[in-house]
Write a structure and sequence with these properties.
Four copies of one chain form a homotetramer. By secondary structure, chain A is of the alpha+beta class. Chain A has 17 helices and 25 strands. Chain A has two domains: 236 residues, Aminohydrolase, N-terminal nucleophile (Ntn) domain (Glutamine Phosphoribosylpyrophosphate, subunit 1, domain 1), CATH 3.60.20; 189 residues, Rossmann fold, CATH 3.40.50. The two termini of chain A are 23 Å apart.
């Protein structure tokens, strides 16, 4: 399905479970992170001696079955769901990625993107090393395999300084799980206590909630957390950046609404985004409808402060998502529409305010507007809970290139005309930050073009797919 | 996944498409009917000469791929998604079901349940016929294969009188699609014009909307509609029953909210159910939350008339549905919960009114209430948009047996205690009918025990699985 | 893989095993019958009460796994491997085929072909019955479902008279297995005692040997054998035909060499065919080579009486058989040859006598001859262990139509030229019968055109695939 | 299926095909090498710019389909079939193995075993490199990725000196295929001209014959052959060892009979082994039978010089090989035998001489002898076409450990008693060399314990599976 959303690269999870069901817990936890990556999934487990793994292309429920999950015995596990941004989408780049090193076996699962990966890759190749994957994970593993230090924590401290970019990592050794977050804090990573005395880390607190965790907190920017039979240990790998650069889009779109990001309920922030959107636009209309599912909380918030009634205007076809068969052009022209149906009773003769979370390439809003007009809407006003996305992300979010971004190619008025709505409104960066309730500490580079550090955009490609 | 919902038996679709993409249209249309049956799917096509088919166990997207869809060439198609109520869930009972007859090949796809099937089955066996399936479809096909009449319409008229129960059928012959509905009108079946000059019938108008249909109307109770190269033809197979007996649960739970049932928007009726629920209960609280997804419109309606703010309280894990691996008891006890997470920020210290559409066996409401309390809810009041379900359905809905129905075994107060909520409320039958806006014409037997005709509950089982 | 061999339609097996591992025994036995049909496989089991089944397209090892074999519990089983002659090759026609009847459930597995099926089919359709399969099995089941008689044996006796053609059947009811053979004895069916007190029937004694059976005997032409908890019972369904019409090709090609057919070792008969072939041809040469695997015993026999040394001349690529990817024409023209390599050391500068069992369409012998010449053979003499096949088979062997049979279209000299060998020799019908050691009792219609009864070659096709 | 044979580790193939069907040719060629490894298969292709690959667990026909073969476009390809000796049997160790290096992408497919791999592995880990596979291939690739030299040929020359053991390699870069053989010449590797102007290399000449190659020759021990758009180039990587150490077992068992090894027809050598076996044993009997398929040529040779008639005594069940379901002990005890049936007619009341190629663990000969006796054999004399295997192989053949080898644990008389035959005979080393017709140049270490160089048997294990 083509969607016009930014794509998150990955979800990661790590488990230390005294009762030995680590792989099983990782499996269920990964379901709660499936929205962060649906192209590949994998789990690696350690039993104190040996690391075993299984990974494959597809959804978690497609990759794993009782037959391949059962042999993954051990009390330590890491897992990964992948959406491919850098690195092509083959099985080769599925994670966790596992190597043998002079210090023993080491597996990695990574969410983020190393902005200076091309340079680091080139340095590793120059050292006479062969890299078996095109993803950043291989670079990180090779750096660690050759790092100085008596412990993995020390080795991490040695190499983290060279990694410029976003990385929320979980590492697995024979007898421990390590969780690491870059000093800018780009991507989320949370830690919780399992009810039975173990620990779990996951890209989102929502996954920890699914596992029944309590005492959930963020892994701090730059922090290294170690989980093993001795319990929980923490040290700082690098000092946190000043200021931090949390990804604003986790609030706007990526994270589950039941997750906590920067100690804030994502659902709550989204409602606030809807409130701010009305404050800025003062839009008038007869009904507020969300584009489901992500814009639902914002529509509730918009309705609450505007006193314009909130209702459903679109019904999402939940089963169309995984088909690999696409309608022919003929069928499409005839009006076969797979993703949404409109609800004429709620739209007819109404001035409709549609809340959506973002416009990236701008190719799906037009058909939605048309659907509303066919259903009898008198006016269609499209209000977006973030500013125009005018710059690519180099931190692991697939926004597209400059050429693909509609906000780079068109003015807002041109965009409105392209989409065919009566008016088009974006929330300002200031409005977004007011909704979050923070003054700084967020990366808004995709809106502003101001990156947290200098980006070298020249990439060297690997020679294989 | 165990859920405590009534289960619909099937979805059916039929296509006459001059441009020969009938199978492809059936395929996309079945996605929009996937919620009506997820155990098996199938499509049969005719090209004027030969009928070909493919069917299998699983979701539409799992059963079909380009390789098995492409050979299904022809301008006529019928399709089916199956949830098994009668007949066991093997491939043998997947539909469409296809036989050769003295009048040529005939395929059938059926939604409903023939209440006197056991007797009809026995009569067919006594005629010396072997029945290759345990489902009603075989009975109907054998009746038609031996019926008097010069046309399929005449043969249908001959045999329909003997079929007591619910049947929304599509039939496929070498050169036409026939759509038939029982005279009580138990289950829905709608007809629409395809943009390119063809026609489509489907269990729900939402599927017709997905295919781009216009001029959508219901197939009338007792009506036989024929689609072929000569266009559309209609005749009455049996006179409509007086009164009709439409299934109330299509409004309450089964149908897509974007479908129309009895010329009423299902989404609108659900909002009205929420409104009537407040009118009857006059409940007080701080927030109204739905159990997603089906209770969302009712919660909006409840909030609108009660002026109690509506918000999300649960987040549904959309990816857990299709896993065949279940958590061990150990993991379950530790708190692994796969289906819903609660949103503490929206619940903490609040008197929470939870809107749900039905309670059947009563085994899933308790855990939901517990989840809300753990998230800090002060009080939990559970309000259901229909009356207690105290009687089984014999018309194709899997409500469970008398012994399984909690409303048959317990009083409302006992049920409340079992679930652990502070109060428990059901909408009255009268409230339901007020919400729909009709005085009669609906089957409410699962609430009242008053069936549209006498039910003989003694079944003869088939000797195979 | 294209081969130029007649194709056998099916293998059947039936088990009564007191220790309840009937499905498992059927599974292993079907492997020994895999050569008789590789398109579909299936097993049905009964436990005294219920019949369960599983079937699918592909080899036995592909259709079954522990997951679908384990639920097939019971002490009675029948199984089938299918090659499609009549009926198209879809899952619909996979066997065992199972129906519910007035007398209880009944499953069938069939090897053979009913020559008057079209007429029987038409009669059944006229009775107002829908036939769900295009194979003969449905016809037989419907006949039995409506037959007079108090027992299945009586019902068989009632209907067998109408079945003109080849049928080696196994039937499964709730509590017994029945094995039936047509009165002509066209196709084999043997019975053996299992070591643990049970019984097994199978298309070939080789499969019974695999299961460890002893006291193996043929089911007699026209005999009905019943296996159940009361042991073994036999009655005659029809009197044996005079003379019998055993298929000569079971000796020549179909049966495993370790099977016994007409109380004769097939391996031994094949050696004798080689001996007779030399007696008739008195061929001279330097080496005798077989086309592997089926002609190996004949080459041994030919060598023994001719005193011409026997050696391997071709090596068969055993792994190419199941690939669905075929070489492009370009690759083929370049010389990619998948099935056989020649052994130049054994062929160079030699007059080579090649023994093969049959020529049907005549399209694969030419490339073999060319291979031998490229490997340095001085002369290539092709000797066939049967007469020219000039007439189709209506008893379940896919020989092809008259137009396809090279012996119908060409003289022997034209065929020799087409193939490109130095001389071409066929064994005479008399030579074949001498090798077998019988004067009569065999069907040689494919050589002589003299069928055991009048054949009506007009077929009515079913209207589905 | 358990068999008592030594296991070959791998088959490799390399293609330079001007017409761009390189992957397709590799695919068909791998079928002809399937006997050398059935656990995994893979193909990598290059188009002058990029390398693409696909690999998986299972047979070549299971791993590849049109869908994953079609995207492998390019005129250069390498392929691999794997049986795991060193390295566990997971997908991680499937080949070709592919890395990016400072010199561009490089893929490898390897047959053989590096005897000093543990030491080399340890050196690489100490260099701070992470090794993603436990097989030798990763070691070789990392050595090459860090090697000095301006061309891959020079880099190979730099590193080959450190590799002590067996390696027949094919390497793939962006624009060439390289084929390399160790200086001892342990494992075969042949080169042929494709009819269309390209070249192919393969583990066995039989695979080249399948592809239609002519002018076939061995890659010389120590030779590096380069295939690319400029044609064929050869240089010496290392001087050939004095003496060479070709694997005797390629003649005895591994190679296809239609392959050439050391310029000798394998089929011819096997016949000669049979002849020498009779010369040494002067055995008397009534019939000579082979254990199929590998001992067939030896039985022919034995018969030819002994004038004892040769015949089939066992029929192999060709379809049982790939089932993953094994008979229960109960079934086994009852006599279910899956692999061979005996032919009583050829054995009854006869003194039977059975020819087999080797005894490794000694667990399958006993049941075969028993089968012959049950079929009526008067005496059973077992004659083996090689000496007792008393020492493990460190060059890539899985013979088992000292403890597993029956010839290490028992005398010949004890072995005979264990097997239950009347007499047991092994061909002497001298007899084997006479049959081959060479005085030296072969490795007979598994018989003699004399290895071509000192073996360090202490292994370091990797920490993952």
């Amino acid at each position: 399905m083509t969607t016009d959303k930014p794509h998150e690269e990955c979800g990661v999870i790590g488990i230390f479970a005294p009762a030995e069901e680590a792989a099983s817990m990782a499996y269920f936890g990964l379901h709660a992170l499936q929205h962060r990556g649906q192209e590949a999934a994998g789990i690696a487990v350690a039993d104190g001696r040996i690391i075993r793994d299984h990974k494959g292309l597809g959804l978690v429920s497609q990759v794993f079955n009782q037959g391949n999950l059962s042999p993954l015995t051990g009390h330590l596990a890491i897992g990964h769901t992948r959406y491919s941004t850098s690195g092509s989408s083959s099985l080769r780049n599925a994670q966790p990625f596992l190597v043998d090193t002079q210090f023993g076996p080491l597996a990695i699962a990574h969410n983020g993107n190393i902005a200076n990966a091309a340079q680091l890759r080139s340095e590793i190749l120059q050292r006479g090393i062969g890299l078996p994957t095109s993803s950043d994970s291989g670079i990180m593993l090779m750096a660690l395999a050759g790092a100085r230090g008596d412990t993995w924590e020390e080795r991490l401290q040695t190499v983290m300084g060279a990694w410029q970019g976003a990385y929320s990592l979980v590492l697995l050794t024979q007898d421990k799980v390590l969780a690491v977050r870059d000093p800018w804090g780009f991507r989320p990573l949370s830690l919780g206590h399992l009810p039975n005395g173990g620990f779990a880390v996951a890209s989102e607190s929502g996954a920890l909630q699914t596992l029944g965790c309590h005492h959930i907190r963020e892994i701090a920017p730059g922090e290294i957390v170690t989980l093993d039979a001795h319990g929980l240990k923490s040290c700082q790998g690098l000092k946190p950046a000043q200021p931090l650069a949390r990804c604003t889009f986790e609030h706007i779109y990526f994270s589950r609404p039941d997750s906590v990001w920067d100690e804030l309920s994502v659902h709550h922030v989204r409602q606030r985004l809807g409130e701010e959107l009305w404050q800025e636009t003062q839009l008038k209309g007869d009904v507020v409808i969300p584009v489901p599912d992500s814009a639902i909380p914002a529509a509730i918030g918009f309705s609450r402060v505007s006193h314009i009634p909130h209702n459903d205007g679109f019904i999402k076809n939940r089963y169309i998502g995984r088909t690999f068969i696409q309608p022919t052009d003929t069928l499409r022209r005839q009006g076969v529409k797979l993703k949404f149906n409109a609800l004429p009773d709620n739209l007819r003769d109404k001035r409709v305010i549609v809340i959506d979370d973002s416009i990236v390439r701008g190719n799906t809003s037009g058909p939605l507007v048309k659907l509303l007009r066919q259903a009898g809407a008198l006016e269609v006003h499209l209000a977006i809970t973030c500013p125009p996305i005018a710059h690519p992300c180099y931190m692991g979010v697939d926004m597209g290139t400059y050429d693909e971004l509609i906000a780079h190619r068109m003015t807002i008025e041109q965009t409105r005309e392209h989409i065919g709505c009566d008016s088009l409104h974006y929330l300002s960066v200031e409005g977004v930050m007011r909704a979050i309730g923070r003054k700084e500490g967020y990366c808004n580079a995709c809106f502003t073009g101001v990156y947290p550090f200098k980006i070298n955009t020249q990439h060297t490609k690997t020679g294989f797919e």
